[in-house]
Write a structure and sequence with these properties.
The complex is a heterodimer. By secondary structure, chain A is mainly α. Chain A is built from one helix and two strands. Helix content of chain B is 27%, strand content 21%. Chain B is built from eight helices and 14 strands. Chain B has helices spanning 70-73, 87-96, 113-125, 140-147, 162-169, 174-185, 204-218, 243-255; strands spanning 15-18, 21-24, 32-37, 51-56, 81-82, 101-104, 129-134, 152-156, 189-196, 224-228, 261-264, 274-275, 282-287, 290-294. In chain B, strands 3-4-6-7-8-9-10-11 form an eight-stranded mixed sheet. The mean pLDDT of chain B is 97. Classes of the chains: A mainly alpha, B alpha/beta.
Chain lengths: 58, 313
């Protein structure tokens, strides 16, 4: 690759990145409500004894 | 902001892109349910002495290197255990546990937003009051929607610099500050906590800056809790916060005009109690999470009559 070709590729890549960032920043954010899935991906457990104090902070 | 590719999850691990639609895998699947004293949240000016039903799913949109609950906040849902408890069932369990308060806590209620929102709405209709324990890293629109059903929050303001939020929490400060201001403006009872980590955010000038910001933007009446750090997760190389550091932080915040400044996670006599900002009378005496005495009369100091910020009945 010649030096001129390399600079052209570099400039195109840079312009692409800048255009992408501007596009992300410019798109208005909208509220999207996520829908639940039918099945929990982890394992299910019983609720256990909920009357005990929590072991976690907060 | 996450850009989530098809079949992938976001940074929180619990919201995924399935065929172009955003899905939450934790809706109705709490990993933890328990009944706590409300003082544990910490929430000192909201119905002191109450028991509060507390719930959490796995996941968080922050990745604090010092996270106290990292086993659940940073867990993959695939590797976790959860109970099936949809919103209506959660409200019934809360009532049958004789709790009139429900806390969305331990991890991050914002990350199980839809579950929090639907439950809070049902709980409000059932006469249950809702409490969020959150880091407040959320956009304003969904925050305002949720706050309609929220009665009180404890928001963890983790530091007062963008550098701290970026380096320790993988987040930014501005949305958190905005969440605090919005919550206060919506009439929600707001308390602020700050985990004081040795060498990272314990400099007196940072504490002063934080107290000044809280006073200027939320008011001097906002309860402020300085919590002791306990070495956990990816930050086991630092020592626990000393009582002296926490007492110094409390003194600085009070110098800056904060009326109610507390110390948590480390035993402190004065730092657990509520004093009247007018006449300095001891109003609420606490021992860890227990209330030893409460002198507040209908939200006022019995001696000088000053109104005490909070919800008391």
């Amino acid at each position: 690759m010649t030096r001129r070709k390399f600079i052209q590729v570099l400039a195109k890549t840079g312009a692409g990145i800048i255009a992408g960032v501007l596009w992300i920043a410019g798109v208005p954010r909208r509220f999207v409500r996520a829908r639940p899935v039918k099945k929990y991906p982890g394992s299910l457990k019983s609720m256990g004894d909920v009357s005990r104090g929590g072991k976690w902070s907060g | 902001m996450c850009i989530i590719e098809q079949g992938q999850s976001g940074d929180c691990r619990v919201r995924i892109n399935i065929d172009g639609a955003l899905r939450t895998v934790v809706y109705g699947y709490p990993c933890s349910m328990a009944i706590d004293p409300i003082e544990k949240k910490p929430l000192f000016h909201f119905l002191p002495g109450s028991k509060i039903f507390s719930v959490a799913t796995v996941g968080c949109n922050l990745h604090c290197r010092n996270c106290q609950n990292w086993e659940i906040s940073q867990a993959n849902p695939e590797d976790s255990e959860a109970a099936f408890c949809p919103p209506a069932k959660l409200v019934v369990i809360t009532k049958s546990s004789r709790c009139s308060l429900l806390a969305y806590t331990y991890t991050e209620p914002i990350i199980y937003y839809e579950y929090t929102y639907d439950t809070a709405k049902l709980a409000r209709e059932a006469g249950i009051r809702n409490v969020l324990v959150t880091a407040g890293y959320i956009n304003e629109e969904p925050w305002r929607r949720l706050l309609k059903y929220v009665d009180a929050i404890t928001l963890d303001l983790k530091g007062i610099t963008e550098d701290f939020y970026r380096d320790v929490c993988s987040a930014t400060l501005k949305p958190v500050q905005n969440a605090l201001v919005v919550a206060k403006s919506c009439g929600v009872e707001v308390e602020v906590s700050n985990l004081v980590i040795p060498t990272l955010n314990d400099k007196p000038e940072e504490i002063r800056q934080l107290a000044r910001w809280v006073r200027a933007n939320l008011g001097g009446e906002t309860p402020l809790h300085f919590l002791g750090f306990i070495p956990r997760f990816k930050m086991r190389n630092l020592p626990p916060t000393s009582l002296e550091t926490l007492e110094s932080a409390r003194g600085i915040a009070m110098e800056e005009g904060m009326d109610y400044v507390y110390i948590g996670n480390v035993a402190s006599k004065e730092g657990q109690n509520t004093y009247c900002p007018g006449c300095k009378k001891l109003l609420i005496e606490r021992s860890w999470h227990a209330i030893l005495q409460n002198q507040i009369k209908e939200g006022h100091c019995p001696d000088c009559g000053k109104e005490i910020y909070g919800v008391w009945k």
